[in-house]
């Protein structure tokens, strides 16, 4: 395949097709107002992305319960009061010609009390002095994910992306190290996967036939077992429970160092699964047109753009006009981001990434 193939439309199981193979990754940017209300900075950021030529644009991690917050200025979808701002964002993305999705998030044991969060672990051993969620509490959070999806649909989004990565609550429940439960949500792989499956099944049941569902999965850290994740993913793909799988890889080229898949890339062990009509994409330091095109050769149907999209909100447009395009080298001066349209809130957040904003730049 060539870079030109990135601009072929991509049909999905439900709803309209992506106009091309570029998806904007869900990026935390800490721009929202207290209680999860979208700020003018949020809206402008999403407007810029909506005009950037992407096939689909996801919001950053949007909390389904106020108590599930992980960081400052995180957007929310746990109240109907959030609908006006969400509707405005959905409309602005649609006006730019792309599809839209809200990433649904709950921090689980990583919820931050500093920002009003309530740590909600799967196991009583994870955090000293904090008891595991009861079965009823797990079911409440499950229903909050589903309610968040219904609000996203009401606001006019084409779908939602369920955040099952990075040790947040759904990922946490999948981990045999972080989940030692003895109820129906713990023990066997089937039980540890139940939370995720019930969230996805509930969204499909409660939302319309054209509503799209994505699922973000990470493989590394938090005691996750790659063999188990592959088995769980195979079932989800075979049942066509989702429209697309988003593999959140730190680097899609990284090689597995041990176990049954030693010597293979992280991407390859998922790319070779039968997936029927489900689409597969990956994120992981995709900074050039050539590298994005190479992902299609390695089994992906689409690519997720993160850092490259922060540096240049219209990254797909630039690639379409120059098949040899590469993103600016990091770190960049803060003023480069400022001139490009990023808010001071976003730039302040990026300074914490370590390798993004040039130290000492103003």
List its salient traits.
eight-stranded parallel beta barrel, 362 residues, TIM Barrel, 11% strand, 9 strands
Largest sheet composition: 8 strands, parallel, barrel
Unreliable parts: none
Which structural class best describes the helix and strand composition? alpha/beta
* CATH fold-level assignment: TIM Barrel
CATH superfamily, by name, is Aldolase class I
Topology, number of strands: 9
Q: Could you tell me how far the N terminus lies from the C terminus, measured between alpha carbons in angstroms?
A: 42 Å
Number of helices: 12
What best-fitting shape do the alpha-carbon axes yield? Answer: globular
CATH class category name: Alpha Beta
Helix and strand run: EHEEHEHEHHEHEHEHEHHHH
- The structural domain count equals 1
Proportion of beta-strand residues: 5-15%
Structure explained in plain terms:
The protein has about 350 residues and is α/β, with parallel strands linked by helices. It has one domain: Aldolase class I (TIM Barrel, Alpha-Beta Barrel), CATH 3.20.20.70. Helix content is about 35%, strand content about 10%. The chain has 12 helices and 9 strands. The protein has helices spanning about 40-50, 85-95, 135-155, 170-175, 190-205, 225-240, 270, 290-295, 305-310, 315-320, 335-340, 345-350, and strands at about 20-25, 55-60, 60-65, 100-105, 160-165, 210-215, 245-250, 280-285, 300-305. Strands 1-2-4-5-6-7-8-9 form an 8-stranded parallel barrel, surrounded by 5 helices. Helix 2 links the parallel strand 3 (about 60-65) and strand 4. Helix 2 packs across helix 3. The longest helix has 21 residues, at about 135-155. It is globular and about 55 Å long. The protein starts with about 20 loop residues before the first strand and ends in an 11-residue tail after the last helix. The mean pLDDT is about 95.
């Amino acid at each position: 395949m060539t870079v030109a193939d990135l601009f072929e439309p991509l049909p999905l199981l439900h709803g309209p097709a992506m106009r091309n193979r570029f998806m904007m990754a869900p990026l935390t940017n800490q721009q929202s107002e207290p209680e999860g209300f979208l700020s003018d900075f949020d809206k402008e950021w999403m407007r810029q992305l909506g005009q950037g030529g992407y096939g689909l644009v996801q919001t950053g991690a949007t909390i389904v319960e106020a108590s599930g917050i992980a960081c400052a200025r995180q957007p929310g979808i746990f109240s109907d009061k959030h609908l006006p701002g969400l509707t405005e964002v959905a409309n602005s993305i649609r006006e730019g010609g792309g599809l839209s999705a809200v990433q649904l998030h709950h921090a689980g044991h990583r919820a931050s009390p500093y920002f009003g969060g309530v740590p909600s672990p799967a196991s009583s051993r994870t955090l000293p002095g904090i008891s595991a969620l009861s079965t009823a509490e797990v079911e409440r959070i499950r229903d909050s994910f589903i309610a968040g999806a219904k609000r996203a649909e009401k606001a006019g989004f084409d779908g939602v992306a369920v955040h099952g990565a990075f040790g947040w609550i759904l990922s946490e429940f999948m981990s045999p190290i972080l989940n030692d439960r003895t109820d129906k949500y713990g023990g066997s792989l089937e039980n540890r996967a139940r939370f995720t499956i019930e969230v996805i099944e509930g969204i499909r049941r409660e939302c319309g036939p054209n509503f799209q569902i994505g699922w973000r999965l990470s493989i590394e850290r938090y005691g996750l077992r790659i063999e188990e994740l592959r088995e769980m993913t195979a079932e989800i793909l075979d049942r066509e429970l989702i429209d697309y799988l988003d593999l959140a890889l730190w680097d899609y080229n990284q090689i597995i160092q041990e176990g049954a898949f030693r010597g293979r890339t992280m991407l390859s062990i998922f790319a070779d699964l039968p997936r029927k009509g489900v689409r597969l994409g990956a994120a992981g330091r995709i900074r050039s047109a050539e590298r994005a095109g190479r992902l299609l050769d390695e089994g992906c149907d689409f690519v997720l753009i993160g850092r490259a999209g922060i540096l240049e909100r219209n990254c797909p447009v630039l690639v379409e006009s120059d098949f040899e395009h590469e993103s600016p080298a990091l770190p960049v001066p803060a003023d480069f981001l400022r001139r490009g349209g990023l808010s001071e809130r976003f730039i302040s957040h990026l300074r914490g990434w370590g390798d993004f904003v040039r130290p000492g730049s103003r």
